[in-house]
TrEMBL record:
SUPFAM superfamilies the UniProt entry points to: XseB-like
InterPro entries with a match to the protein in the record: Exonuc_VII_S (IPR003761), Exonuc_VII_ssu_sf (IPR037004)
Keywords, alphabetical: Cytoplasm, Exonuclease, Hydrolase, Nuclease
Annotated spans, Disordered: 1-20
Enzyme superclass (EC): hydrolase
Name recorded for this polypeptide: Exodeoxyribonuclease 7 small subunit
PANTHER family: EXODEOXYRIBONUCLEASE 7 SMALL SUBUNIT (PTHR34137:SF1)
Source species: Nocardioides cremeus
SUBUNIT field: Heterooligomer composed of large and small subunits.
Family under the similarity heading: Belongs to the XseB family.
Origin organism lineage: Bacteria, Bacillati, Actinomycetota, Actinomycetes, Propionibacteriales
Subcellular location: Cytoplasm
Amino acid sequence: MAEPTTDPAATTDPEQPSYEAAREELVDVVRRLEAGGTTLEESLALWERGEQLAGTCQRWLDGARARLDEVLDADD
């Protein structure tokens, strides 16, 4: 069985945002949550979206680290 990839660029999901887009949207979500003035339902939806975006960013970072490790291991 093939190992799952940690590189989001290797996925076929057309809705997978780039790291930069996910990070930018996550910053916006945090700003909106910190500003307040939203209903409980809106706040929960923002929180959930923030969790999704944080996961996306983490997968990009994990994929980048794995690629760097591969290069560094190949140099040894």
